[in-house]
Design brief:
five-stranded mixed beta sheet, 24 helices, about 450 residues, mainly alpha, about 5% strand, globular
Amino acid sequence: MQMYAQLGYQLRIKLPWSEQLRHRDHHRHRNQQQVLPMKWVFRCAALSKQGQRFLSSLAIATTKGDTVATNRLIKKFVAASPKSIALDALSHLLNPHSSHSHLSSLAFTLYLKIAEARWFQWNPKLVADVVAFLDKQGRYDESATLVSDSISKLQVKERDLARFYCNLVESQSKQNSIRGFDNSVASLMQLVCNSNSVYVKRQGYKSMVNGLCEMGRPREAETLIEEMGKEGVRPSMFEFKCVVYAYGSLGSFEEMNKCLHQMERAGFRVDTVCSNMILASYGAHNALPEMVLWLQKMKDLGIPFSLRTCNSALNSCPTIMSMMQNSNDFPISIHDLMKILSEDEALLVKEIVTSSVLDEAMKWDVAEAKLDLHGTHLCSAYLIILLWIEEMRKRFKSVNYVNPTEITVVCGSGNHSIVRGESPVKCMVKDFMVRARSPMRIDRRNIGCFIAKGKVVEEWLC
């Protein structure tokens, strides 16, 4: 029960360098002491056309202040929509990062109408999202009623009740609802301490550690990890990763490295996912030299690079980011790119260039040479295209490779973009092909691909 005394603890952030980097500029770190914790921002996927029309109509009715029309639109939409489309629209209104946040006040009304639909099934995760939203809006009576109703449904089923509290902790941490989060953690802690179920204890601690880290309170999360051991529950790598990333997000790199050592002493090896979290943390605080050192460490330890490794690293290069976002005037060779990068950026790009990250995206056989850019961010897609062009040129000139019949670059058509049908990667690839005078053209059968005959591409490159 020691956790209750820890919940009100105020984290004081100190930002000293790790031992191997103490010779670098300390002033930059002292200036970052007030930086708020960084969180992954999960944006909603693009809405269906039916959902877009619904929210557009809602916006018009809301602007006019027509409550009757608003309620009629909601009722008609729920009655005419399949379950997936109705719930997707609700998720957009509940998500604090949605482009429709100006309509968020209607989320609870929409939820109540959905709850009346014939196809509706009570869902603890959905209820938790609605409760967290109401808490964030200061509508405490309504949220308390939902929680009370849910507990009455589940109180005889300990596991189900634990899952509900876990969902609450997760949802309230994402909404940054401090009051609701602290209440839910206290309730979940009481349930965990009174339970004899290892499953309930493990899931409860996992959710509380994750939630505290999401809220920027990693020291409290560390205290919970210690209590897990006292309760006979061995912490997993997940809990350690949460704390590592939370400290990194705050810019508290010394604490982050201490937690990494604790994780290794507990028998867990740093992997690619954990490394990507560390790179993202360094990148959020413009610590490019540290990113270079970490990439080198990954190579020394044999930790594989992934496309997300490339994303995390290159998203922190201001020169490349600026080119990709503000201009189509970018170099079309790695040699020319290196000339315009700062020293730190050049070292970072060199580590990516000399890695095997291209192998994950590239396929080569006699029928087809394919480059798949799914999962790449704009900067990563750009650098991988440059690497791919050089590798293609080498292979066409080599006797060790058969020349493929067809060349394909897959970049997607924007179905999963924030704005449906607008793919920034596709636009960049198109600009690149035009500037490089490439023979590759958009495939008429699949507008998310660029294609050309292998012989034609060989003549272009060689």
